[in-house]
Amino acid sequence: MSQPDAAMISSVTSAAGKVIPELVLLGTVCINFLVGPFLVTPSGRALPGLRHRWGGIAIAAICTALYLWWTGSTEVVTTGPFRVDNIVWYVRGVMLIAALLLVLVNWSQIEDGKAAESHACLLAITAGVNLVALANDLTTLFLALELISIPTYLFLFLPRKDAATQEAGVKYFLLSVFSSAIMLYGFSLIYGMAGTTDLPAIQTALANSNQTPVLAILGMVFVVAGLAFRLTAVPFHFYAPDVFQGSAASGAALLSFVPKLAGFIALIRLLEPVVDAAPGLLLADVMLPMLWWLSVITMFVGNFLGILQNDLRRMLAYSGVAHVGYMLVGLNVGHHTTSVPDGIEALLFYLAVYGLMTIGAFAVLIAAERDNKPLETLDQLAGLHRVRPGLALMLMVFMFSLAGMPPTAGFLAKLNLFFAAWAQGDVSNRWLALFMVINAAMGSWYYLRVVGAMYLREPLDEHHGSHAPAPIIASVACTAMVITLFFVPTWLWTMVQTVRSS
Amino acid sequence: MTDVAGHLLIFTLCGVVLFVIPLVIGRWIRPARPSAAKDDIYECGEPTIGSSFIQFDLRFYVVALLFIVFDVELVFFFPWAQVFGSAIHLADTSISADAANHLTSTLFPEIHSPATSDQHSAISTTSLHPRAALALGWMSFVDVIIFFAVLLVGFAYLWKRGDLDWVRADELKSIANPSHR
To answer: Entry's InterPro entries (chain B) (predicted)?
Structure first.
């Protein structure tokens, strides 16, 4: 009996055991879609309050997944369709907690008749992000990325039915399909080069080939372009402000974090075998300068255009673009260094902190909504500290954190990235660190403008907005974590540090 | 790099030239005698009645889309059938060793791929154990059942929502009492 066959088969048969938290989420998705339509009338109306039940079910599913994640085995597996290691463990934890926050953010944004579908989409997206981290094969990776994209179209489309939402939904749909096609073309070239879709086997093929890997270079350029769309890295960012502006605040909150998390994890997974392979040195020579330029351009364009915005969600979209630029610094310096702190570790820390502050900011914007109409301009936040002092205080914390000022976790996250880039030692990477500092200073202008509007201007009217508890709970939780992580960063940092030890 | 670029250039040039030559030859040797009858619709077309720029019923599109979704899902059954058939055939202990080897190599083509052949060259002569093949077959059967079950969830969803009805229930109601429109 040939052993590798048996190993291959057992790795396939035991694959389901490695994705139990995701199976719980996807099972709940099926339940939502099966039961959902039976609880609404044919015209799509439902009993008032039904969304609370669907939200409760989503929270229960995520908590079950969190429990299974926490108690599950941490045994490292590197063969088969799924790879289980410490990155997977970390991404699962971050994404499940982000999903909890997003369920709360989405709670009051959705009609009762559409709550089942909306929460099901959110759970499917969560499972998709985890599967991206688990993917050990180009096919699995692509399917996982599509498991994020396709529910996202629906998630953006469901909350409202006005022209702006539809435009945003269609725009995201078309451009996302386009980016998937580009990425798939890159995958096909890599497959053509290596003759296999298995990531470890691709690494072996790259290491053993004695020719210039032209196809692999072309393929990786396409893959990075396709993923840069998800990251909203310049020049693939142009859709982000329009889509953020058009969709409901919960959709914008999701878009500001989840595709970026998935994109960075996919990039880490794909670049690792490609850049580490020794004769693929030429590949690294092409990829790293490309990522360097991507990072610099993304930072500067994001911040310049962020300064010009008056619409809150457009501003946060460009802020997201700028933050992707900062995080790309981590990716740049993480792949050829043993310095402390490591670039990838700093990137993973930044991702978690960025998720907390951006989802928190959108949660505050939702809590401050008037008559279920989303806040649009900066003027609508004027004098918020008079009307809703608690919300103003929390939004100030998030703005400080996004700008990278103490005492918030955003400061430490930026500091980590800066040290990672500086300690790496290359002149080009020290330039990256300097560009990051310049950009952080530029970016604080538009963050502080929000704080200024809230605290220094008089309210336009005495409208108190809604007091729905869910977004307030989410923003309080985010505030607590953003401040706690400044004082006790080791909680997160020790988790991040396990990632590279495996 | 120059090698690849050169090939690409030659390929592009050949493509353009071979495309242009027949057009040029046709231009030289064909007689030019235009007439009204030659501009008429023929074979695939009928003379239209009225304007062809009419609004198409959106429901055709919805039904076509649903059909395409389920049609494409069927594509996934073909690779599955290949694996399932080979595995069940391999589980049969009475087949010859050659047949078993052949089936094993269809199930695990990567063993013969250049990337891994130097490490696993000994394996290609050994076939899969019948018991392992049976396990693989059963697992793929369970897999396809789960796949199909998820598909049926989608089907149940759109059936219940009334997306398959030609006349939607809420429209029926508004046809019955037009005042609610």
So the answer is: NAD(P)H_OxRDtase_bac/plastid (IPR023043), NADH_UbQ/plastoQ_OxRdtase_su3 (IPR000440), NDAH_ubi_oxred_su3_sf (IPR038430)
Domain assignment present for A223? yes
Angle, helix A409-424 to helix A312-334, in steps of 10 degrees? 30
- Residue A1 and residue B4: Cβ atoms within 8 Å? no
Helix (H, G, I), strand (E, B) or coil at A188: helix
- Tell me how far apart the alpha carbons of residues A331 and A339 are, in angstroms, rounded to a whole number: 14
Residue in the block written with tokens 């649009």:
A376
Nearest to A316 by CA among A418, A449, A409: A449
Answer yes or no: is A1 within a domain.
no
Residue B2: count of CB within 10 angstroms of its CB: 7
Tell whether A194 lies on the interface with B, counting CB pairs under 8 A.
yes
In terms of residue numbers, what domain contains A456?
16-501
The complex's ipTM works out to 0.79
> Could you tell me which chain B residue has the CA closest to the CA of A45?
B170
Q: Which amino acid, B36?
A: A
Contact check, Cβ <8 Å, B110/A2: no
Domain ranges of chain B: 2-29, 76-180
Question: Does pTM top 0.95 for this prediction?
Answer: no
Assigned domain for A248 exists: yes
Q: CB burial class (10 A; 0-12, 13-18, 19+) of residue B128?
A: buried
Distance in angstroms (rounded) separating the CA atoms of residues A221 and A223: 5
Residue A231 is assigned to a structural domain of this protein: yes
Q: Which residues of A touch B170 (CB under 8 A)?
A: 42-43
Note whether A34 contacts B126, CB cutoff 8 Å. Answer: no
pLDDT, one tens digit per residue, over A185-214 is: 999 998 988 888 888 888 888 777 767 678
Check B108 against A8: CB less than 8 A apart. yes
Give the whole-angstrom CA distance, residue A135 versus residue A81. Answer: 6
* Number of other residues whose CB lies within 10 A of the CB of residue B75: 8
Q: Please enumerate residues of B whose Cβ is less than 8 A from a Cβ of A.
A: 1, 4, 104, 108, 110-111, 113-116, 120, 122-123, 126-129, 132, 135-136, 139, 150, 153-154, 156-157, 160-162, 168-170, 173
Q: Would you tell me which residues 28-87 of chain A have a C-beta closer than 8 angstroms to some C-beta of chain B?
A: 30, 33-34, 36-38, 42-43
Closest CA to A326 of A251, A267, A413, A254: A413
